[in-house]
């Protein structure tokens, strides 16, 4: 696995834990847990004790976490050797989610809410390519006021368009989990599911022998529900749904999610 592909593996050397984070799968709170455990962030000179005290912007700041792609900076030519040892000895975990529901969740948070960066980087090209707009506002607030919004259908078209990945790999919010976390090359000790997050988190913290140090933050109220899938996909043509399944099939199969037949059959 090339170095730049290892930027999702967060390492806690204090407790011998490696977490592969997947955006839209409780990753904010698991990153908070990793910050508390590794004491990688201070609050007025003292490490955080409660995950929920850590501000969101600090959680997603890459400098906060010691990820595998930073090893070479710290260890130079020994980095590969040390990675191998840590991957063997440390307890490795990730959390997954129904792949289609994860896509809906990514769409909701990046395109239904006003997000300047995602508007500029992704919404503008999508609106030009799939909604046939020639000129668009430069800021997301103006775009939303003028009714220029990416539809879920535009987003699916973008994912299915072969030109998309010719330009750049999928953004991490919709990149397949197998490409973020490499489960065929890395033997994970624990794979949790967002659908059973609370039970899985409790069990995992016991398994990691850190349950006396912290609790996993309670679940988020506004979470995208699996039962919404049919509504979201109602306007998506059957042929697109089938191609989308093919695109994410490895994630369905590897992580034990049944094929969503209700969405894929006429």
From TrEMBL:
Gene Ontology BP annotations: carbohydrate biosynthetic process; proteoglycan biosynthetic process
Enzyme class: transferase
EC number: 2.8.2.-
Subcellular location: Golgi apparatus membrane
Xref: Pfam families: Sulfotransfer_2
UniProt GO molecular function: sulfotransferase activity
Stored InterPro entries: Carb_sulfotrans_8-10, Sulfotransferase
Family: Belongs to the sulfotransferase 2 family.
Name of this chain's protein: Carbohydrate sulfotransferase
Organism name: Micrurus spixii
Source lineage: Eukaryota, Metazoa, Chordata, Craniata, Vertebrata
């Amino acid at each position: 696995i090339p170095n730049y592909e290892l930027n999702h593996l967060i390492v806690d050397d204090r407790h011998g834990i490696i977490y592969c984070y997947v955006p839209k799968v409780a990753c904010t709170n698991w990153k908070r847990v990793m910050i508390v455990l590794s004491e990688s962030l201070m609050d007025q000179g003292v490490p955080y004790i409660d995950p929920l005290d850590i501000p969101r912007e600090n959680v997603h700041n890459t400098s906060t976490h010691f990820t595998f792609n930073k090893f070479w900076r710290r260890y130079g030519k020994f980095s590969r050797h040390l990675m191998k040892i840590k991957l063997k000895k440390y307890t490795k975990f990730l959390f997954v989610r129904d792949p289609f529901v994860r896509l809906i969740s990514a769409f909701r948070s990046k395109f239904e809410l006003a997000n300047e960066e995602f508007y500029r980087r992704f919404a503008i090209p999508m609106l030009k390519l799939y909604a046939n707009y020639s000129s668009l506002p430069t800021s997301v607030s103006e775009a939303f006021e003028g009714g220029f919004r990416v539809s879920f259908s535009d987003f699916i078209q973008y994912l299915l368009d072969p030109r998309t990945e010719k330009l750049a790999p999928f953004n991490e919010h919709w990149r397949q989990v197998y490409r973020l976390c490499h489960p065929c090359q890395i033997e994970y000790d624990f794979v949790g599911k967002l659908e059973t997050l609370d039970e899985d988190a409790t069990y995992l913290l016991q398994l990691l022998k850190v349950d006396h140090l912290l609790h996993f933050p309670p679940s988020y109220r506004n979470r995208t529900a699996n039962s919404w899938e049919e509504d979201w996909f109602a306007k998506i043509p059957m042929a697109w749904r089938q191609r989308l399944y093919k695109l994410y099939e490895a994630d369905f199969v590897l992580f034990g999610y049944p094929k969503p037949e209700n969405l894929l059959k006429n």
